[in-house]
Design goal:
Layout lengths: L14 H21 L3 E7 L4 E6 L4 E5 L11 H4 L3 E2 L5 E4 L4 E4 H28 L3 H12 L11
Antiparallel strand pairs: 1-2, 2-3, 4-5, 5-6
């Protein structure tokens, strides 16, 4: 009698298949490293609440903790927990559950307020599309009242 194997059971790959996938992943990582800014080190200076981020190409970028909205009210000890993620493409503050991509950070710091405004607008659009029980209930209540309240005429 044959051994029962469920259809969903994962197929084990051979050593050769695994090595080929591993080489593909290495090539993808090398390509990413050549096209995206990657971090080599990050240092936090508590006396002025600033970071120095060193990229693999040798470029050094300094920024205030308050330049990243998620870090504005963080304690110095939480800020000091910053570490580069293994691929070098991001910075993580595990104590704060905050991860920031290096490319996003560079764009935010160098792109100015217009870039930040467009990011905020995109986030707001995404938030507006999320559905929740409270939002559904409010929409139904507005529908019973004749729809969304009209804006007052300006005169």
């Amino acid at each position: 009698m044959d051994k029962f194997e469920p259809r969903w059971a994962p197929r084990l790959e051979t050593d050769a298949e695994f090595l080929e996938r591993f080489k593909q992943a290495e090539r993808a990582g090398e390509e990413l490293a050549s096209t995206e800014p990657c971090a080599k080190a990050i240092v936090f200076q508590a006396e002025n609440r600033t970071f120095t981020l060193t990229l693999t190409g040798g470029t050094t970028i300094g920024f205030a903790a308050d330049a990243v909205p998620e870090l504005e009210n963080a304690s110095d000890s939480a800020l000091a927990s910053a570490e580069i993620i293994p691929s070098g493409t991001g910075v993580s503050w595990r104590a704060l559950d905050v991860d920031v991509s290096v490319s996003g950070l560079v764009l935010a710091l160098l792109g100015g307020s217009e870039w930040r405004r467009s990011i905020r607008q995109a986030a707001n659009r995404q938030a507006a599309q999320t559905k929740s029980e409270a939002r559904t209930k409010a929409s139904r209540n507005n529908g019973r009242k004749g729809g969304r309240p009209r804006k007052a005429a300006q005169g």
